[in-house]
Amino acid sequence: MGRRLPGPRGPAATLGTTAGFATRPHHTLLGLRDRYGPVVEFGIGPGRLVAVFGAEACAFVFGHDEHFSNHEMFESVAPLSGDTALLLSDGEPHRRRRRIAATGFTRRSIAGYVPAFTGNADRVIDGWRPGDRVDLHQEFRTVIRRATLEVLFGPDLAGDADRIGAMLGPLLAFVDGDAVLQQLRRAFRARAWRDALAGRAEVDRIVRAELHRRSSDAPRPDLLGRLATPVDGVQLTETELLDQVVSTVVAGYETTSAAMAWMCLTVLGAPAIRDRALAEVLTTCGDAPPTHDDLPRLPFLDQIVHETLRLYPPASISGRYVRRGFTVAGHDIRPGTRLLFSPLVTHRDPEIWDRATTFLPQRWDAGRPGFRRPGPGEFLPFGGGAHRCLGAALAVAELTVLLARLVVRAELEPVPAPVRPAGFLAMRPVHGVPVRVRSVRPR
């Protein structure tokens, strides 16, 4: 049972809530919103948290960056992601680094990355045979990891994608735990912490070697080349560049592969949606891989992507450290608070979304009668405000072209399996997306 605190701070959940959050965070947060409303406090000691739910709270967080600190919220992973990564940056240093990093995510840049997405998808699908049982989460995790490294480094290091992925594995496993567990493992220098540090050091070594190899070459059009190029006379230091590379790889394939898994799970479970997506791709592209110019002509696939990101936002839980107090939903949030917010909870709020827990791609059709564009704080798959994910347009493009290749090239039969979300870094289906291959169309 919960108990209500006196005064304007909001209700407090029981100790059992803390254990539930560590093991089933998404289920726990949805339950907290339903039971306690828009503000609830839970946890003990340094793990004490205040969770805020709903569009009003999210809009305030993203609209008032000066009230918050990312670095103080995520400092437990700073030695792994790097003190200068955009996730941990605040104020003017964040704005300067973001301005340089943004050059790698322009529309023109993304257009040049699309062949890496389709090419890597085709290479994995080429390996499937009728009768095979495959896990689409792991298969597309491989696709996205290789494509991310190709986009980042060009083809030179993309061939080492699996080795680099193995180096990053311990780092990813560490940051996928809740903050209290991270603090304990770091404080006691647990094996998980030491392995994560070693993996980060190995990736840094590879990137430094690549930078040295390029030092006498002309700038390249890949993301590493763009990050290493000065903007308005300002250049990233080597430390800043290394931190941006690692955070880009982590964010670029963990969150996107999680979204792809949910999209596969949902589309393959709805034959009418799958058939309509296939018809749109065949009409627009035929058997050929889609180009960036094809994307505006695939509106139904775009609707599928957006509905997936609404119902299953990979970055489903995030937070801020409160530097300046504020009031939300009638509750005072004090300086020094570790604040949680959840796009997942907001995206499933029945006061915002009609049939909130139902997968309805058509809700994104702007020509549909009754269409309503989401308001501030209502649709947040990539965060918002000053820290909105730079790779948002890239992720949407990647998910669209990967879905296009999947529905055109493979006929798959879902294998029944329990569906349960897991993960803090990226919400993923814990049992993957098992399917049986019926047929594969050659490219």
UniProtKB/TrEMBL annotation:
InterPro entries from the entry? Answer: Cyt_P450, Cyt_P450_CS, Cyt_P450_E_grp-IV, Cyt_P450_sf, Cytochrome_P450_monoxygenase
Q: Does the keyword Heme apply?
A: yes
The protein's superkingdom reads Bacteria
Q: Which cofactor does it need?
A: heme
Pfam families per UniProt: p450
Work out whether the entry's keyword set contains Iron.
yes
Q: Keyword set for this entry?
A: Heme, Iron, Metal-binding, Monooxygenase, Oxidoreductase
Family, according to the entry, reads as follows: Belongs to the cytochrome P450 family.
Name of this protein? Cytochrome P450
> Which species is this record about?
Pseudonocardia kongjuensis
